[in-house]
Amino acid sequence: MRVSADRIPSAVVKTWPPTARSVGRARRLLAGQLAVWGLTQVSDDAGLILSELVTNAITHAHPPYGNLIATRFERLADGVRIEVHDTGDDKPEPCKASADEEGGRGLELVHVLTGGAWGVSDRDGPGKLVWAQCTATRDEVGS
What is the percentage of the chain residues whose pLDDT exceeds 90? Predict the structure, then answer.
């Protein structure tokens, strides 16, 4: 059965439990949606960005309001806006990890892959959303 273009959603929202398994599942959902949208050229970078943001939410958001994480993928003209929502109040900030540290480079990587097109915003209810835009135009410029 063929789906007409006007029936393809321009945004997809899903809630996840705060477990490591959610990272891979969210990544598979994103890859499938990018294929539907004809945006497979951004799949690798978008998947890596999503993995970093979901991992941060799982690792650092320990709120008193519950601990589910939500993702939202919105189709852009030449890419995707990725949002990760959690109920934690702490705003993530990039840090410079030393060479022997195992972690601490995730947001730095997100910054590089998006050309700085990412940020943290308030949301309805407790917590925050961390967003990043991954575009084919950015990929072409970076090549």
Answer: 59
Q: Report CA-CA distances (Å) from 30 to 8, 14, 45, 125.
A: 14, 10, 11, 25
Q: Structurally, how many domains does the chain consist of? A: 1
Tell me the C-alpha distance between 14 and 2, whole Å. 24
Two structure tokens written together for 24: 């891979």
- Give the CATH number, domain containing residue 16: 3.30.565.10
What's 76's DSSP letter? E
In a domain, 2, yes or no: no
Q: Tell me the pLDDT tens digit for each residue of 60-75.
A: 776 666 678 999 999 9
Spatial distance between the Cα atoms of 82 and 25, rounded to a whole number of angstroms: 15
53 part of a folded domain: yes
d(CA 28, CA 112): 22
Of the candidates 62, 8, 67, 72, which has an alpha carbon nearest to the alpha carbon of residue 35? 8
DSSP 38: T
What's the pLDDT score for residue 74? 98
pTM: 0.84
